[in-house]
Amino acid sequence: MNRQHLDDRRLHDRALLLAASAIDFDLTSAETGELEAHLATCPTCARRAAALRADASTLGRPLTLLPSRRVDDAVYAAIAQRPARPQRLWLLAAAVLLLVALLLGAVGVGAYLLRTRQTLPISIVPTPTAPAVVVGETWQALAIPASDIGSGWIGLMKAVAVTESGFVAVGAPVCAPQNDPTTCHASVWTAATGAGWTRVPDQPALELGLTVPTSGPEKGMFDVVEGPAGIVAIGHPYDDRGTGIWRSHDGRTWERVDGGAIFTNATISAVTSGSANYVIVGTVADPASATAPARAAAWASPDGLVWTRATDSAAMAAGSCVDTGETPFCAGMLAVAAIATGFVAVGETCPGTFEGCRPAAWTTADGANWVRSDTGLDFNGLLTGVTAGGPGLVAVGTICQPSCFNVSPPGVAATSRDGSTWTFSPVAGATELKGVASAGGHSFALGARNEFPALPAELQLWRSDDGIAWERVRTLPSIPDAASYPSVDIAAAADRLVIVGWVTADIAHDSGLPFLRNLSLRSP
Amino acid sequence: MTDLPESTAAADPQPAMERLRGGAHADEIALTTLYETHRAEVFAFLIRMTRDREAAEDLLQETFIRLIREARAGRMPDAVRPWLYRVATNAAISRARKGALWTRLLPRLVDRREPVRPEGEALRAERDAELHTALAELAPDGRAALLLAAQGLAGREIAASIRRSEGATRTLICRSRVQLRLILEAKEGQA
What we know:
The complex is a heterodimer.
Chain A: H1 3-24, H2 29-41, H3 43-59, H4 69-80, H5 88-119, E1 123-124, E2 140-141, E3 157-163, E4 166-175, E5 183-191, E6 198-199, E7 207-210, E8 220-227, E9 230-236, E10 244-248, E11 254-257, E12 266-273, E13 278-284, E14 293-301, E15 308-309, E16 317-320, E17 332-339, E18 342-351, E19 358-364, E20 370-372, E21 381-389, E22 392-399, E23 410-416, E24 423-431, E25 433-439, E26 442-449, E27 458-464, E28 470-475, E29 484-492, E30 496-504, E31 510-512, E32 515-518, E33 521-522
Helix pairs in contact in A: 1-2, 1-3, 2-3
Chain B: H1 16-19, H2 26-50, H3 53-72, H4 80-109, H5 118-125, H6 129-135, H7 140-150, H8 155-162, H9 166-190
Helix pairs in contact in B: 2-3, 2-4, 3-4, 4-7, 4-8, 7-8, 7-9, 8-9
C-alpha cells in the first residue's frame, strides 16, 4: 500500500465519519464543505452516507412491544405498596443529613450549652413578648421564595448551623433549566434570626458539575459548621465519587477546598468543629465491590483547607458493605460531636446485610487516632446523631427489629459521660429520631412519624434533661398532605431553636420548609 | 412505517388507572401514568439492547422499581424520560458485561437451540432485521449510544447515560454508526 493510497483511504474514512457525525451533530461550515466536496467525487462514499442515514432512520423506527403481565403486575404492586420507611439508600442519605444536624447541634448548640451551663443555669420561662410561651408552641412555618427553592427535589434545605452572624443553612443542588442536564450549584442560605432566609447567589466555588444518575452519595451540601477558621460545609458533587468541602468566612462567599487523594472512595457524612480543628466523618469502601469491607473514616483539619485522614486502624472496621444492586451501602460513622476531651462519633456497622446492623461509637482525643467504644450499645439499630448534653453526650437513632424496614421503627436514645461506655433506652412513642441539639440544659431531638398511608406525616420535637427520659414537647405546625419528612435538622442558638428541612407533599413538588421557633432562655 | 410489528402483549382488560380506586394517592396516579407512558418505548429500547425478551422485561421492571423508589425517597427525577433511559442503559450494559462470562460458559451447560420467541419474530418482521443483528455485534455502550440517539435523546443526555464526556460520546456515536455500516456491508458481501 503506497502513501497515495493511504492518503486516499484516510480521506474516504474521514468523509464517512463526517457523514456519520452529520446525522446527530451540526458540522462546521468547513466540515460541511469538505464532506460535500468529497461526496461529489466519490459515488461509493455518497452511497455509504445515504446508507448511514437509512440505518439511523431504521433504528429510530418505533417497535411496538409491551411487556408481559408479570412486569405490569410487579410495577403496579410496587406503586401500590407505599413504603413505611425510607429506602435504605435514603436512610443513608437521611442519616448523613441527620448527622449534619447532629453535628450542628453538637457544635453550634452543644458548645453553647456547655459554655452556658458552666456558669448560667438556664430555665425556660415565658417572656414579656410571649407570656404564654411553652417550648415549641409558637413555631412559625416560613415561606421561602419559590425562586430560591427550585423544583422537584432540588434546592432543598438539609442542614443548619449557628454562626456569629446568625444562621447558615445548606442543601441540595439547584439546577437550571430544570429539564436539561446542566451544571448545578450547591444551595446555601443565610438568616440573621432564623427567619427571612436569603439564598446565596450561585458562584463558581459552589458548582457541583453535570447532573448524573442519582445513585451513590447524596449530592449537594448536607452539613455545615462554624469553627475557628470560618464556616465549613461538606457534601458530594456530581462528578464520580468526589468529595466536596467548602469554606466561607461570612456564609456568602465560598471557596472550594481540594481534599485530595485522602478522600478517595469516601462517602462523608458529617462535619463538626472543636476549639482548634474540624473533623469530618464518614466511610470508605471500594466502590467496585458490592460487598467490600466498610471502613469508618475520619479526617481532621486545623483550618478547613488542609485535611489529614485519621489512622485506618482496626477500630475503624465497620463490617461489610451491602449489595443494593446499585451503589453499595456501606456502614461507618454517621455523626460526630465535639466534647472537652476531643470528639465522639456514632454510626453503625453492618454484616453485609441490612439485618443485624449494630450501633457503633468511636472516640478520639486528637482527631487522628480513634478508639472504638460501643460498650452498652447492645441493640440492633443505628445512631444517627450525637450532641454534647445530658451527662456528657446524648445520641439518638433507631432500633431495627430486625431490619429498619419496619413500620415506624422506634426511636432510641443513648447517653454517655465521655463516649467510652453508653446507656441506651427506647424513647416511647418516638420513631426515627433524627436531629439532636442541646441548649439551656436540655437536649432536643426531632422525630418523624411517616406512617403511610396515614396523612399527614408528623414532625415531632422531643426534649430531655438527662438524655434518657424524653418528653414530646409539641407537634410542630401541621403541613397539610405531608407524606414524609425525609430530612430535618435542628440548631440551637442562645435564644432560639431553628429547624430546617423539607417535606414531601406529593412526588412532584417537595417544599423547602424552614421552621422558626423563638425559645426564651433566662438565667435566674 | 408500514411494517411495524404488532404488540405481543395481551390486551389489558383492566387499564391500570381504573385499578386505582378512590383511595389512590396522587403519587400512585402519577407513577402509574409515568409507567404507562414510558414502558413501551423503554421496553423496545431494552429489547433492542438485549435481544432477549425475558432479560428486557427484567430490566424494565428493575428500571421502574428504581423510579418508584427514588420518587418515594423524595428524589423524583426532574426529567423522567432521560432518567429512565439512563438507568435502563446502565442496567443493560451491566447485564451485558456480566453476561459476557456466561456466554463463554453456556455452550457447556445448556442446549443453545433457542425457541422462537415473539420478540424475535417482531424483530425479524422488520424490514431491516439484519440491522439489529449487526447492532448486537457492537459493544454495549456503542449500541446504547446509537439507540439512545434514535430515541431522540440529546448528546448531553446520552453522555450522562453512558458516563462519558460529550466529546467522547460524539466520537463514540460517529464511530459506532460507521462500524455498524461496515458490519452490514460485510454481511451483504458474504450473502
